[in-house]
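Worked example 4.2. Below are the chains of a multi-component assembly; read each line carefully before continuing.
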Amino acid sequence: MELLSYVLQQLINGLQLGAVYALIALGYTMVYGVLRLINFAHGDIFMFGAFTAYYLISKWDVPIYLVFPITMAVTALLGFLIEKIAYKPLRSAPKIALLITAVGVSLFLEYFLSLNSLFTPNYIGFPRPFEVTGYDLRLFTITNVQLIIFAVTALSLLLLYLLIYYTKYGRAMRALSHDREVASLMGIPVDGIISFTFIVGAALAGLGGILYGFAYPQINVFMGIMPGIKSFIAAVLGGIGIIHGAVLGGLIIGVSEVFVSAFISSTLRDGVIFFILFLVLLLKPSGIFGKWIDKV
Amino acid sequence: MSFFTSAKRFLLCSIIAYLILKGLFLSGFLTEYIQQIILFSFIAILTSLGLNVIYGYTGQFSLGHAGFYGIGAYTAAYLGAVFKVESIFSFLPILFLGGAAAGIVGYAVGVPILRLRDDFLAIATLGFGILVRVLLDNSDRAIEILGGSRGFIGIPKIVNLEIAFFTMVFLILVTRNLIFSRYGLFWQCIKDDELAATAFGINTARMKLMAFTYGCFLAGVGGALYAYLYSFLHPSNFDFLRSIDFLIIVIVGGMGSITGTIYAGLLWVTVIEGLRIGLPAQALEFRWVLIPIFLIMVMMWKPFGLLARRESKFLGLGKGE
Amino acid sequence: MKALEVSGLKKSFGGVQAVDGLAFSVEEYETLGIIGPNGAGKTTLFNLITGLYRPDAGEVLFFGRRLDHVPAHRLAHLGITRTFQNLRLFNGLTVSQNLTAPILGMHGYGLSSAVFRRRRYFKQERSAEEKAHVLLEFFQLADKGSLGANNLSYGEQRKLELARALSTNPRLLLIDEPGAGMNPREIRDLLATLRQVKEHFRLTIVLIEHQMGLVMNLSDRVLVMDFGEKIAEGTPAEVRKDRKVIEAYLGDELKTC
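Applying the procedure described above to all three chains together yields the following structure tokens:
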């Protein structure tokens, strides 16, 4: 009984982490869909979201219901600018050049923001705008933070689904993921849709940043690296380019990470995630929901 | 001995460079710190050359090169501690074994992951690099002496100008001979068009594995030199940022150019360390702000690097007679 | 002697039957032309023969030897080479290296010969270069050997691709739409080159082509494909008259050539 409740408790904790990963993974998967690029800077957009929320809450006392939209707008703008400034000039360059540029953007954001006159390289306490309270459900406890995370994630997923499957932007995005050339022949404004994808993805990453701050109230300019990479792995695990794949992948990675920490060793948790990555790449590189690609 | 006679020009340049360096080292103009930086630049060149073989020549993008560099360093340091290596002669086999360990791991990892392409290979090698870092951080649990996150201490300082320089010269020659042989030609074919390479009889899986193993071997030798130059190892010396360092050297110098890697390696170490010396402490943090901008600009203007697929006549690193 | 024998060959992609029970054979030293509308499965057929795809059913025999478990990179060693519809030269290499690479793939030297520059290294490198030079001369590219392959004109690149396919002394040469993207003048030039190849090298050739003129002029026999199946086979003259062929594909195209 005790073990069961411990496992359930860890599962809830894992889902909390996984929900944040899912939000980040969505951006990776959408950008990969339209641009075939691993946007390494995506984890840093997530970090920027956490810092924006930090400033809004602790320096400017912005009410919580405004923190969400403002933060998301700020990160969306950042995502938009990154694409326009760094990636767009390389649209016809070799793929690896784009990838290296993405690594460059990521390093730039981290080190530029870590300047002492900006965010500094230190850890900063993230001020939760409310007290954490737990609700005892006999088998496990769930906190208000976790409830917020689950609710916000579920809501944004719902909205994203509506956006992608029921609006013309979403249709254009899917057409673009399918085949860029055909999409542009069909009259889809390719550049506009790519920008749009970055905006949506970056807004979700910003949201992830706020929620991460609520859950693990320590932020730092380098905080985006590992969650970024893990979320990308989540996207690969679920099947890159597939929306629900990113969500499931995020949850699996989050739960595995927490379970490894709880039952084996917390220092090995990153190792296990990469072990999962190797397994996926070797056994089914197209991911859980991906189709086998049978063309040379 | 056409190994040496076919590279007269390069050997001549090397000997002159060695004599100048030796003179400088003996003259007392150079502080110990600067001497160490010069030797480190040879290590950086050697390790980057390994990455150039993998990425620049064969087109297999790797973001985990520092992992292999670390494997070489830790293997050499560990073996040295076990066998109580303190002299130059017993060090040479250790140097080779450090490279071999990295090469063997590279082979084992390469068999499965080299089937992947471009960005998937990048993420797999990145994952490998982080895995190595995690294992090194926890290494003291398995083997106390490796030191885990406290670092590996007490490695004798054996590497001197002669060892570092001539190891580099020798391995540059070996690399040149490989590049200008059928193997190097096959590697470049794979980079250009893997499918066409297969259709013309090249066993691409085997050739990619060979390039990857050899590139990792060079990184391992570089790591082993590093261990016995600095006499202290820490997992953070072998993390993702180090992989980026080597990548920058390869890209700036030019994909598929030995000459480019040599120049870029020297330039890189000079700039990084020069900024450390030249800039006031407050400005130091700007280094990693400027470096990525530089990297992005190179990608926009010269996505294949500055000396892509060209060799300098002056250094005599062409095919040779 | 039959150089190539294909029987019951099938391949489908996601429910579309690209090649559907195809059977034909090619005699040694014969030139077989394969024509058919776009999507008839011609290139898929080449990819099946050269091991890039695994067939769903059927077999391919090369001088009586089954090819389905031979890895793709062994085919050149057995004596089968091909050209590609969309040029796939090694663009980072020189014109000459585009030939020496396959040549050295056939008869090479070991790793130690390479690293230590033993005599064998120099000998084989030189003989590969000489062989490449002879081929380049045949294709009037000899003076361009040290240029980058991507500096050649389109027509020259087509020639270089043919030279590369011949560099390994194949017994069977598969040519995939050599006239793709060429104007009528370039086509005439290509036809002359292909004729020379046919006369000069004793080879079995399978030629896929859209340009009717090319196929009808070069082929000893023509096979017509549609929807992955063979719909007619015979000498160029016979095929020209075949009602089924005219209906299915040639129609007005025939009148123009």
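Take a moment to check your reading of the output against the notes. The first helix of chain C runs from residue 42 to 49. The longest strand of chain C covers residues 2-13.
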